[in-house]
Specification:
single chain; alpha+beta; Uridine Diphospho-n-acetylenolpyruvylglucosamine Reductase, domain 3; Alpha-Beta Plaits; 3 domains; 26% helix
Length: 361
């Protein structure tokens, strides 16, 4: 099923720019909609900023089979357009990725690898990627993976593109598996102390409840139930609390709640922690998402001290605020070695977003 609408295939133009950059050893700053430009380090080599390579014009949904729950889309396609096409068939991308602005693109979503409140229950971005078309350092457009779950040829390389921030190649096209939208959705707000909320979440985690989001904010546990109408209604009646009105989950996903107010000068940190991790000895204000596995922290703590506390809990911390020299958790020596080898293999001249993740990559 082909989709009518804005379709632009800029593959050859992108390939030519990459071929020239590789020949000249010119670093490239790969750009989509720019809504996640804050996420990571500046792209530069020895203080020289990379040359912009935009994928915005390379857009369009090239194939969509609602029956098979598979869609293929070019990287520059607006994320809003992509989701609207799915919604017309009562389908969705289960990882609920954030946009952070109206110009967000599908390629940027994959490159950043960020997921929304549904992630612990439905999966992360990489869990929905079936295949990719990638422009290599030689300026070749190569297909990895496919459009069916049984296709494993190159599947792992496709997944490597998720969260790589464009450091391994230019994402030109992505195939996703999608999910039907739930028949019923109901959100609740239950006032209770944080410790009790953690206890309840641990108990509910052992039951087959239709939970798809859980966040603790402003002295209350917020829950989202999704699934069959009877299951959602029965669970809502059992758990009690007040019905949660409005667009809480979308505002949480897009960081538009008061907690994320840009007027707060303290750096914003994202903490990823094992399930059932107790509260940590950290200075600042915390919003708990993913049933506590993802925590947003507003804090003036020194980055090294903050990361030491998080590492002791077997987690990691990423800064979402511009100006922090190293936003990502330092890699362990063995992991760093493999990252470097992979970068050298896929990008020997270091032209793709150099320094975006780490200075040495």
């Amino acid at each position: 099923m082909n989709i009518d609408g804005q379709q632009r295939d800029m593959t050859e133009a992108l390939c030519e720019k990459v071929r020239q950059a590789n020949a000249d050893k010119t670093p490239l700053r790969i750009e989509g909609g720019g809504t996640k430009a804050f996420y990571g380090r500046p792209v530069s080599v020895k203080g020289v900023e990379g040359e912009a390579l935009s994928t915005r014009e390379h857009c369009g949904i090239t194939h969509y089979d609602p029956v098979e729950l598979v869609i293929t889309v070019r990287a520059g396609t607006p994320l809003a357009q992509f989701e609207a096409a799915l919604a017309e068939n009562h389908q969705q991308l289960g990882c609920e990725p954030p946009h952070f602005g109206s110009t967000a693109t599908v390629g940027g979503m994959v490159a950043a690898g960020l997921s929304g409140p549904r992630r612990p229950w439905a999966g992360a971005v990489r869990d929905f990627v079936l295949g990719t078309r990638l422009i290599t350092h030689e300026g070749k457009s190569l297909r990895f993976g496919g459009e069916v779950m049984k296709n494993v040829a190159g599947y792992d390389l496709s997944r490597l593109m998720v969260g790589a921030q464009g450091t391994l190649g230019v994402i030109a096209e992505v195939s996703f598996k999608v999910l039907p939208k739930p028949a019923a959705i109901h959100s609740l707000r239950l006032e209770m102390p944080l410790e009790k909320a953690f206890q309840r979440l641990a108990e509910w985690g052992r039951e087959p409840l239709p939970l798809t989001a859980a966040a603790y904010h402003d002295g209350a546990l917020h829950l989202r139930l999704e699934g069959g109408k009877s299951s959602v209604a029965a669970t809502a009646a059992r758990l009690g609390g007040d019905e949660l009105q409005g667009r809480f989950w979308q505002e949480l996903r897009e960081q538009r709640l008061r907690f994320f107010d840009s007027q707060d000068s303290r750096p914003l940190w994202r903490l990823s922690l094992p399930n059932n991790t107790p509260t940590l000895a950290l200075d600042g204000d915390v919003l708990y998402d993913w049933a506590g596995a993802q925590r947003w922290l507003r804090s003036d703590m020194a980055p090294d001290r903050l990361r030491e506390e998080v590492a002791r809990a077997k987690g990691h911390a990423t800064c979402f605020t511009l100006g922090v020299a190293e936003p990502f958790m330092p890699l362990a020596p063995t992991v760093a070695k493999y990252h470097k080898r992979l970068k050298e293999r896929l990008d020997p001249h270091g032209i793709f977003n150099p320094g975006r993740l780490y200075a040495e990559l």
